[in-house]
Structure formats: C-alpha cells, structure tokens
Amino acid sequence: AQSVTQPDIHITVSEGASLELRCNYSYGATPYLFWYVQSPGQGLQLLLKYFSGDTLVQGIKGFEAEFKRSQSSFNLRKPSVHWSDAAEYFCAVNIRKSSGDKLTFGTGTRLAVRP
Amino acid sequence: NAGVMQNPRHLVRRRGQEARLRCSPVKGHSHVYWYRQLPEEGLKFMVYLQKENIIDESGMPKERFSAEFPKEGPSILRIQQVVRGDSAAYFCASSPEGTGSPLHFGNGTRLTVT
User: Fold this and answer.
1) Which DSSP string corresponds to chain A?
2) Residue B16 gets which letter from DSSP?
3) Cβ of B42 and A101 within 8 Å?
C-alpha cells in the first residue's frame, strides 16, 4: 500500500525567510502528488499538483514543489514566507484506479511564522 | 459557484446518540469522499461514493458507521451510538466524474462526543 511521510511535525521560520517542507512517498510507480494547506478551522485548499511532465510545478501563493523520482520526494518550497502562510500543510498521494481517486495523506507539517 | 458545503459545522452529541453529517458536493460533481481527521493527525480516507453507490468503503469502521449519496440530496455520513473516540473533524470532498481532478474539500464538521 502507498504511504506518505512528512518527517517534520512543526517548523518555525522567520517572515521573509525561505521555506522547504519535506514529503516522501512509497509506491511502486509514479503517483499523482499534491500539496494542500489547511488554516485553523478550515477545510483543505489545493496549493499545487504533479501528474506528469515538468518535475518543477508552480502553485498558488508563490509555492512550488519539485518531484524527484530517485528520492521518492515531492518537497514544497517558497522563497520568502509571509505571516499569512502560517497553517498546516499536507502532502498527498493519489493512486488512480478505475474505481476512482483516493488520496493518502501525510500527517502534516504545522508551520509557524515569526514576525 | 458554491464549493462543497458541509453542515453542521459543529455537532455535539452525548455518548450513545446518533450523529448525521451532511455534504453537498460542488454542483455537477458526482463523486464524493469522506475523510476523518483526528487531532494531530492527517486525514484518513473513510468512504468513496458515487450517486446511489458505495464504491470503496475500506476506511469505514465495520460497525456504527454508514454513508449514502442518494440520487437527490446531499451525501450523509451517519454514526450510530457515538463514543468519545468518534470525536474528530469529518471532511467531505467531491470531484467531477472520471477526470482525475484534485478533490474539492468542504470546511468540515467537527463532532464532539461528551
């Protein structure tokens, strides 16, 4: 079965600093990969997705992620963090089957931003 | 266009009562998924439904939990005889049929069992 690992439970960065959130997946083939963000008390909002093609994908809010097949990773990055980026970030894997799409989520990384 | 609508946002039940959680998918979406989020954990898949059919319920507890997505009306997640361990946030997501599009999530229902 596929799995997703987010090794960092909490990360704190200063506003304006760069950010990288790690995500590793376990699956025999290349899955569809996603990053979602969840603000307190809210649902999940899609930041970006990777299906195929260019391994560096751009998302909303200035985020990007790079798929590295050799490392089974899909790390999320942002060059300059804003205070409003404080939230919880989830990496997810989608193994498409003929019967539908089912996401497997990592346990999340909670981002705090220092002023 | 309205997104995925879930109600109620907050639900408090005493042990032994029933909880009914509703989800109206994005207009035109015929695929609905339910996920559960426990404190400090990620989202866990529960069930996947299409109109009038349960496609995958591999994440549903075998007892007390059921889900439906009728031809008309919202999808319902029903938890009978709730216990404290059922306290969690329950999220519904929808997607268009067969497109592989990312899921659209609702804001969740936070169930508290006292």
Assistant:
1) --EEE---SEEEEETTS-EEE--EEE-SS--EEEEEEE-TT--EEEEEEE-SS-SEEE-GGG-EEEEEGGGTEEEEEESS--GGG-EEEEEEEE--BTTB--EEE---EEEEEE-
2) T
3) no
For the record, the structure tokens of A114 come out as 């220092």
B26: nearest Cα among B67, B75, B66: B75
The amino acid present at A41, given as its one-letter code, is: G
Give the chain B residue nearest A44 (alpha carbons): B105
Query: B54 vs chain A: nearest CA distance in angstroms?
Result: 10
* Interface probe, candidates A101, A105, A107, A110, chain B, greatest B C-beta count within 10 A: A101
- Encode pLDDT of B15-54 as tens digits: 999 999 999 999 988 899 999 998 777 889 999 998 889 9
In terms of phi and psi (left: phi > 0; alpha: psi -120 to 50; beta: otherwise), the region of A40 is: beta
Amino acid code (one letter) for B90: Y
All residues at 6 or more sequence positions from B29 whose CB lies less than 8 Å from its CB, including other chains: B94, B95, B96, B97, B104
**Which pLDDT tens digit goes with each residue over B91-104?**
999 988 655 677 88
Tokens of B68: 């439906």
Residue B44 touches chain A, beta carbons under 8 Å: yes
> Do A34 and A49 contact (CB within 8 A), yes or no?
yes
